[in-house]
């Protein structure tokens, strides 16, 4: 059975992509800590990040760093938060989000999909894609 992330990657569920290549996709989460909160996900379904092949994990981190730099640029945050939790969806992923303090590391404080503003989500995705220099699908 495909994970929800695979369904987003495959286009079965809509997603706001900010980066995509043949091994990794990055898209906004529907439950952000702050606008710009991005999930960096391997295309290949692997439940735990500790089970990823080292080369894929390395590439996943390179993309997370690219997204993190864009987040700092676009949102003016002091840092880009980086968090691997993995309990919400059985598909390895890295949370990258605007961070000015440790508050963002508490995933119990996320906005629900009903609380988010679609226009702000679309704007965040568009601004991140521009900073990363990719098209609407997230590809260079």
Topology:
Layout (H helix, E strand, L loop, with lengths): L3 H6 L7 E4 L3 E5 L9 E5 L11 H22 L3 E5 L10 E6 L18 H15 L8
Antiparallel strand pairs: 1-2, 2-3, 3-5, 4-5
Helix pairs in contact: 2-3
GO biological process, one term: nucleotide metabolic process
Protein name: HIT family protein
Pfam family, one: HIT
Describe this entry's structure for a reader:
The chain has a five-stranded antiparallel beta sheet. 31% of the residues lie in helices and 18% in strands. Helix 2 (54-75) packs across helix 3 (118-132). It starts with a helix and ends in an 8-residue tail after the last helix. The mean pLDDT is 96. With 140 residues, the protein is α+β, with helices and mostly antiparallel strands. It has helices at 4-9, 54-75, 118-132; strands spanning 17-20, 24-28, 38-42, 79-83, 94-99. The radius of gyration is 14 Å and the shape is globular. The protein has three helices and five strands, in the order H-E-E-E-H-E-E-H. It has a single domain, classed as HIT-like (HIT family, subunit A). A hairpin with a 3-residue loop joins strand 1 and strand 2. A motif (Histidine triad motif) lies at residues 91-95.
